Amino acid sequence: MLIDKLWELQQLQLDYRRTEHLLEESDLSSMLSQKIAKTEEQLTGLRGELEGFKAEEIRIGEKLDELSVKVHEAGAKLGKEEMSEDKVQKLEEKMKKLTLEKEKIEDAQGKNFHERQDVEDQIRALELLREKLRNELDNLPKSDAESRAAVKKSLPALKKEIAARKAKLPLKSKLIFESLSEKFSEAPIARVENSTCDYCHVKLSQKTLFNLHHAEESGNGDAEELIRCEVCGKILYAGTKDRE
Ligand SMILES: [Zn+2]
Question: How many domains does the chain have?
Fold first, then answer.
């Protein structure tokens, strides 16, 4: 019967779609893996920078301590020792120079601190991103490269098979099947279960059910044999059992 052929054709179309979808997911998986690797790389770079800032912070701290000691020593000398005016002036100049140097280093300390914070913020953001990408990857179905290649290889044959079967269909039926396939994502046929269309779940009218059971007798082998759901418009398939 024509409807059986169409039903098989729909199964093939759905197989094709599922396979394509599977391949898309596995493309997505390799894309995510690449993104994660890139994020790791950036993280390693930033952690290196962070170590640099930490080392610099220690160096600056030591330098500041050193200067503080020198300023303190000079100050103590100035207060205690009897010395010539010339010497006092020199010592004061030295202290002024030391203080300026200290201020400069304190500026550098502040700058280093802010840059370090900036790097730490970037690291935190990247760690969150990596976490998010890892979760996405974990939630994808797994498929190894080998089975993926086999699946990809099977697609052209499936496509050919579908085209060959379509070519054998009566013209009107073929056109209806194709336009409904487009409208309903490759699934133009709905099964009838308990007198109900299993796509829109509406109880079919007595007239539709009658036509469904007598389609073969009344039809001429083309579109007249195809009974459509009055609500969603899909072609109805009663299955061999239900037809008796
Ligand atoms: Zn329906």
Answer: 2
Distance 199 CA to ligand 1 centre (A): 5
Q: Is the same domain home to 142 and 179?
A: no
pLDDT at 225: 87
State in Å: Cα 202 to ligand 1 middle.
Answer: 6
**Tokens 């109880």, located at residue:** 203
- Looking at residue 150, its pLDDT comes to 83
Q: How many Å lie between the centroid of ligand 1 and the Cα of residue 224? A: 18
Mean pLDDT over residues 110-114, rounded? 95
Q: How close is the Cα of 91 to the center of ligand 1, in Å?
A: 100
Beta-bridge mates of residue 191: 237
Residue 242 CA, ligand 1 centroid: distance in Å: 17
Q: Cα(217) to centroid of ligand 1, in Å?
A: 23
Check residue 118 and give its pLDDT. Answer: 96
Q: Give the residue from 138, 103, 118 showing the smallest Cα distance to 32.
A: 138
Residues 26 and 102 in one domain: yes
List 197's β-bridge partners, or say none: 192
Angle CA 221–224–226, to nearest 5? 90
The alpha carbon of 209 and the centre of ligand 1 are apart by a number of angstroms equal to 13
For tokens 């046929």, name the residue: 189
**DSSP designation for 185:** T
Residue 77: C-alpha distances to residues 85, 88, 89, 97, 102 (Å): 13, 9, 12, 16, 19
Assign 226 to helix, strand or coil. coil
Assess whether 208 and 239 both reside in one domain: yes
Q: Which residue from 233, 224, 234 is spatially nearest to 173, judged by alpha carbons? A: 224
Amino acid at 29: S
Residue 175 belongs to domain spanning: 169-243
